[in-house]
């Protein structure tokens, strides 16, 4: 649960389908160590908690600051020094969200699957409703061509995909925002998206 519209609607759709849903907010960046304000992070966490309360599902936080720094950000900086511009989200998805996080979800919360707000799907379906043990799982583009996020999932393994769900795969962004508004998630429906910008030695999130 990022505190944004995509994860909010994903959780709502999962609950509507009858799944036992647990909301988990990942903390990947230490703003205190960086010396910047914690307002943004605290706001995201507060929004995520509010969404879970509205959906009447449990809310938890997990800290991956160390793992993100070592497995994602340092790798990104090393590549950047060599003139290679890589995408941190790709490494984060493979090594943290669909690996380290899934292990915690399994061990701590006894979860069978993790679900994310990515605009993507698989041949098993958005909710794994077409699961077939005789057929290999394949990552597929979601319905919205302007929001397709399969690129960010390109290194996620078949084993990792087998235990993942993408509830937004059959929806367009406009539909997701409409559902959020209908469910009373008015503020998160209007939140701006976040991008990473690098200027000299500064890392700016906006």
From TrEMBL:
GO molecular function: ATP binding; tRNA binding; tRNA-5-taurinomethyluridine 2-sulfurtransferase
SUPFAM superfamilies listed in its UniProt record: Adenine nucleotide alpha hydrolases-like
Localisation: Mitochondrion
Keyword set includes Transferase: yes
Gene3D superfamilies listed in its UniProt record: HUPs
The entry's keywords: ATP-binding, Disulfide bond, Nucleotide-binding, RNA-binding, Transferase, tRNA processing, tRNA-binding
Annotated GO CC locations: mitochondrion
E.C. code: 2.8.1.14
One BP term from GO: tRNA wobble position uridine thiolation
Domain of life: Eukaryota
Reaction(s) catalysed by this chain's protein: 5-taurinomethyluridine(34) in tRNA + S-sulfanyl-L-cysteinyl-[protein] + AH2 + ATP = 5-taurinomethyl-2-thiouridine(34) in tRNA + L-cysteinyl-[protein] + A + AMP + diphosphate + H(+)
Signal peptide: none
Task of the protein: Catalyzes the 2-thiolation of uridine at the wobble position (U34) of mitochondrial tRNA(Lys), tRNA(Glu) and tRNA(Gln). Required for the formation of 5-taurinomethyl-2-thiouridine (tm5s2U) of mitochondrial tRNA(Lys), tRNA(Glu), and tRNA(Gln) at the wobble position. ATP is required to activate the C2 atom of the wobble base.
Protein family: Belongs to the MnmA/TRMU family.
Protein's recorded name: tRNA-5-taurinomethyluridine 2-sulfurtransferase
